[in-house]
Amino acid sequence: MFNQIFYIPPDKQRVVDLPRQEEMVKPSKAKLSIVLPTYNESQNIVRMLDSIAETLSPYTTAEIIVVDDNSPDGTAEIASLHAKNISNRKNNNKLHVEIIRREGKFGLSSAIVAGVESATGDLLVVMDGDFSHPPHVIPSIIEALQDSDCDIVVASRYIKGGSIIGWPFKRRLMSKGATKIAQYGLGIEVKDPVSGFFAFRRDIIDGVKLDAIGYKMLLEILVKTKGARVKEVPYTFTNRSVGKSKFDKWVMFDYLRAVMRLYRYGKSMRQKERRTSVRFLSKAGRFYTVGASGLLVNYVASLLFSALAPNIWYLYSTILGILISMTSNFFLNKLWTFEDREFNVKETGIQFGKFIGFSSLGAIIQLLLVYALVENYNMEYPLSLILAVAAASVGNFLLNKKWTFKEKIWS
Ligand code: GDD
Ligand code: MN
């Protein structure tokens, strides 16, 4: 069912130079999960599993979770076979290798999310399966993470001691560009926010919904765990020597889209932090400001039209002024008051219809109310008018908030 199997017997694939004892992850009570997304890594997976296993002390409870997207080269089968070899080794009885095989190629970030969701460790490490992220860095990452003042550790190419080997100029430039975009666009201070090699404490993502936004999972985690304490440890990224990168020109567009989504997410989080009363009043204030601007638009448009077309009956100019001001009110409220940036033609048309409907309803309510107050309660006309305008505009605001822009009334 797969084209080729590059199965190299494990004894031939073992890395020759074993790490020294001090380069191993120190034993601790915390359980470790290493998430390894793979797509067509048949030539790397066996050596990767072995190298990772060798960095783990025999006293560390750990699991490696390979998340494979049904690679046509048989990565998942090879990994499963080798997982048995590893569990048969006597000194590795605290290491468990788990293979998640997904039905199709759903992408790197969603593979990471799948791995993270099924991980049972307290400390999670995410890394590539092609040796670009050298396993011997794992101990220093875990050590940094075990400091009590650290929640996320980023293995970094862009701090002192870090570097990149084997990337063409273009790819380096794109990576630097992506880094700057994340730093300026999302206010992230991490030096290598687009690293794919990172670790974190499981509990910092408790209650956080990961959506696999874009190719760079770390970015989403950094944005959604604002306030988490981040440390960076240097490492040298080495471009893969076997297999193919899945990076293509679409990745850059995908990246920009992801940053935009994360930016909106961050913004809505900041707004959520404010008190409901403040947000409600701020929206009402914007709604009435738009209403006032509508009066001006109405007046200017009507006069302009009658000046441009003097032969037209003045009531037609007035009607046109009303239509124009209703339209400008609608768009200003959509964009500014209710911060709704979705411009689907059908949805926007429906919203516009509702908006006009509620405005007309407001006018009718106002008329009826003035009439009732003057006739039934013998109120002075100016006072009645104020009350009627106030009632109609409050009604207008609440109806549009709830039904046109689909928000909760008190929010
Ligand atoms: N399950 C799964 N599904 N794994 C995938 C998929 C996918 O759709 N696409 C890629 N992978 C796996 C690869 O097998 C590899 O282990 C890892 O994800 C990274 O993929 P590469 O194709 O080797 O990516 P790269 O080297 O071009 O890009 C890397 O660049 C970053 C540095 O800026 C990224 O993958 C980052 O992780 C890395 O930090
Ligand atoms: Mn790679």
Which range best describes the helical content: under 10%, 10-25%, 25-40%, 40-55%, 55-70% or over 70%?
Answer: 40-55%
Q: How are the strands of the largest sheet arranged?
A: 3-2-1-4-7-5-8
Biggest sheet layout: 7 strands, mixed
Report the CATH architecture of the largest domain: Alpha-Beta Complex
Q: Average pLDDT value? A: 89
- Rg value: 31 Å
Secondary structure blueprint with pairings:
Blueprint (H helix, E strand, L loop, with lengths): L9 H4 L18 E7 L6 H11 L6 E7 L6 H14 L6 E7 L6 H11 L4 E4 L11 H8 L6 E5 L6 E3 L3 H18 L11 E4 L15 H8 L5 E5 L1 E3 L11 H23 L3 H33 L5 H24 L7 H33 L3 H24 L7
Parallel strand pairs: 1-2, 1-4, 2-3, 5-8, 6-9
Antiparallel strand pairs: 4-7, 5-7
Helix pairs in contact: 2-3, 6-8, 7-8, 9-10, 11-12
This protein binds guanosine-5'-diphosphate-alpha-D-mannose and manganese (II) ion.
Manganese (II) ion binds next to loops.
